[in-house]
Amino acid sequence: MQFKLAALALSASLMSGTAYASCQIDGRVSIVGNEFPAIHAVVEGAKECKGGEITSNLTADHQKINVAGMTGNPAEYTSAIIANSSIVALMNDDLLRPLDDLVAKFGQQLKPNQLIKIDGKVMAIAFMANAQHFVYRSDILAKHGIETPKSYEEVLAAAKIIREKGELEFPVGGAYKAGWNLAQEFVNMYYGMDGKFFEPGSAKVSINNGKGIAALEMMKSLSGYMNPDFLTHDSNATNAEYRAGNVAMMNMWGSRAATLTEIEGIPQEVKDGFAISGPLTVGESGKSASTLWWDGFTIAKNISDKDAEATFKAFMNGIAPSRLNEETKPLAVWLIDGYEPTEKAKGVFNAANMQTKPYPMQPFMGLLHSALGGELSDFMQGKEDAASALADVEAAYTAAAREKGFLQ
Amino acid sequence: MKHRTFFWFILPTALSMLVFIAMPIVSVVTQSVYTPHEAVLVETESCGPFGCSKETVIDQAATKSLREAEPLGRFVGLEIYLDRGHLAVDEVAQAWRDSEGISEFISELNNLPFYRAMGFTLTYTFTVAPLMLLLGFLIAVSVNRLNRYLKGLVIFFSLLPMIVSPLIGSLVLFWMVDSRGILGTFLQWVAGDPDLSVKASTSLTWVMLIVYGVWHAAPFSFIVFYAGLQTLPGDLLESAQIDGANRWQRTWHIVVPHLLPLVTFVALIQLMDNFRVFEPIVGFNSEAHATSLSWFIFNDLGGETRLLSSASATSVLTIIGVAILLAPVLVRTWRDYQRKG
């Protein structure tokens, strides 16, 4: 029995490598965050630390609980894993601890571009980048002599050929589910048209203009080549359509595209034809119709310095350059020192190279995103025209922004 | 019962009702008339992996003093109730002035989230309730006539829709009616239209939600009616039979009147439940076609920026809506009580 235990301990220490020996913490660590493979990998790394109690709650509903979970004193969660959109809610309620002292003490491994500085203070540590980009079936495009589309206009032309040749009835895929996803596609398309969401320096929305209408019209034209159920398709459903071979072209998240064809039961031609390029452009602006994202961790304000230090150290272990290996590398486009992009990461890298804009971090952007998600589905169903849909969005946003005190 | 005994008897119930029902209602009403303070916005430099840019952020120091002075927030009275997300009085008045006929006015109303949600909720409530009563009654009468060896098994299977969690139940049906699913393909074949999609059509989505609602709720009325049938006096039925009443007459003149008080009970519970329809809307991803007040509350609290005042106002409106729906039944019960008293 004793021998068995010793063997178990030995193998455990071998598996966790150097981290086991180096990561000793003294305090409580409790993490809340989104749920996808890259985040699991980071949190597993954090949990290798010894000496303190480390718990995590990784769920797609993390945004619904992180504000409440960090408001108490002491906060239930010592850390929230967030993205550039969701840090805003925590910043708005002043729930985050500036990390400059911890970075100076324990953050030697961090690269300068991992530090998210707001008003000169480090408020989060980014560990991965993400963007939506074009994913397509090179075999289908080659078969019909179509060059890889670089703009949404070329996607429409290609979709027309694929449909007319009888190859696929609905060749275009898109996460157009009413709500958050549909709003995100509008944000992409509107940025591609070089649009601006707010009047400079104020919370006043201005999207009901030529660029907004053009963005919506493009989305409508694309939906004509999508499965008629598109308003119920989120990223998961869109990926399922691609995996089943029903879709030849789509705009997909880099974090999901990497492992898209790596599950069982995918037809061989889908696997072989799987190809990634950068974000598409739209209209004549030449801007990329996508947004850049980072995922990172924050530390709660309402906890003791001891717990904050333990949390920071645990994360430093979770995103240690030594943890990059064959298994973890393809999971994301890591911002960690020493990461070299894999072939599947080139979509996100192209997005960065094309000067794609980061998703906006204004305190009121979340309200506009919700308003877009709620009000655009009427237009997508052909129940109203683009201008009145955008007027509805502006009215819904204005009511919400007044309530939150952003507008008078 | 003596007053003193009655007091001690009712105390635990009254206390828990105070804590779990009355106090939350007071809290919700309070939250609905207060909103967050006006945010003091400042422009700052923010830097990340993709470079630096000017960003607007909330000036926490300035906002903090506002918050500490009035921790509840700004008092706005009924402003939230009347804004576009709720009763939308200004927009309704505008639509009334501008529209040429009643149909144009209705389509303008339909463009406002609250009235659109009410349109679906009321249709759902008033179709599901009678259909589930009827279906439950038919199942109860049929099961009651089965021989007792079969009964247990049939009752178990009839109760399944209620046992299955609503989200799972709606997801199963959601996948089946997919245009590539078994029911979806069958419907395409029946309609002779290969492009037919239930999920893409508002009216078919409503039908799907109502069918699901009836499927899910029928076991409840079935089990109540079935219990009621066990108390049906056998001699009454026998004497009717001797008087030459056929089966239909016996059902209509004896069974139905016997179960009528239960109908009131089931209808009451169902009106309340259906007015708060929520899980099927999430399960069927149908927010593009059908929403409800409960879904609004979920949506207000689930966004990246939570709208607590808006969600509270919607909750209060839900309570008022349920009270209006139940008013006729409550008034009747009160009259019955007075008559007996």
Number of strands of chain A: 10
Helix content of chain A: 40-55%
Percentage of residues in DSSP E strands of chain B: 5-15%
Number of domains of chain A: 2
* Most extensive chain interface and residues per partner: A-B, 67 and 52 residues
Q: Identify low-pLDDT runs of chain B.
A: none
Shape verdict of chain B: globular
How large is the count of helical segments of chain B?
15
Instruction: Please describe the biggest sheet of chain A, giving its number of strands, its sense, and whether it closes into a barrel.
Output: 10 strands, mixed
Radius of gyration of chain B using CA atoms only: 26 Å
Structure description:
The complex is a heterodimer of chains A (408) and B (341). Chain A has 408 residues and is an alpha/beta fold. Chain A has helices spanning 2-22, 37-47, 62-71, 87-92, 100-106, 138-143, 152-164, 180-192, 210-223, 235-243, 254-257, 268-273, 305-318, 346-353, 365-375, 377-380, 386-403, and strands at residues 28-33, 53-58, 79-83, 115-118, 121-137, 172-173, 249-253, 274-276, 292-299, 333-334. In chain A, strands 1, 2, 3, 4, 5, 6, 7, 8, 9 and 10 form a ten-stranded mixed sheet that branches. Mean pLDDT of chain A is 89; it is low at 1-21. Chain B is mostly helical. Chain B has helices at residues 3-33, 60-69, 79-82, 89-98, 102-109, 113-145, 148-163, 166-176, 182-191, 202-230, 234-242, 247-275, 279-283, 293-302, 308-340; strands spanning 34-35, 41-48, 51-58, 74-75.
Output the keywords.
heterodimer, A: about 400 residues, alpha/beta, D-Maltodextrin-Binding Protein, domain 2, ten-stranded mixed β-sheet, 10 strands, disordered N terminus, B: about 350 residues, mainly alpha, MetI-like fold, two-stranded antiparallel sheet, two-stranded antiparallel ribbon, 15 helices, about 75% helix
Topology:
The complex is a heterodimer of chains A (408) and B (341).
Chain A: H1 2-22, E1 28-33, H2 37-47, E2 53-58, H3 62-71, E3 79-83, H4 87-92, H5 100-106, E4 115-118, E5 121-137, H6 138-143, H7 152-164, E6 172-173, H8 180-192, H9 210-223, H10 235-243, E7 249-253, H11 254-257, H12 268-273, E8 274-276, E9 292-299, H13 305-318, E10 333-334, H14 346-353, H15 365-375, H16 377-380, H17 386-403
Helix pairs in contact in A: 2-13, 8-9, 8-15, 15-17
Chain B: H1 3-33, E1 34-35, E2 41-48, E3 51-58, H2 60-69, E4 74-75, H3 79-82, H4 89-98, H5 102-109, H6 113-145, H7 148-163, H8 166-176, H9 182-191, H10 202-230, H11 234-242, H12 247-275, H13 279-283, H14 293-302, H15 308-340
Antiparallel strand pairs in B: 1-4, 2-3
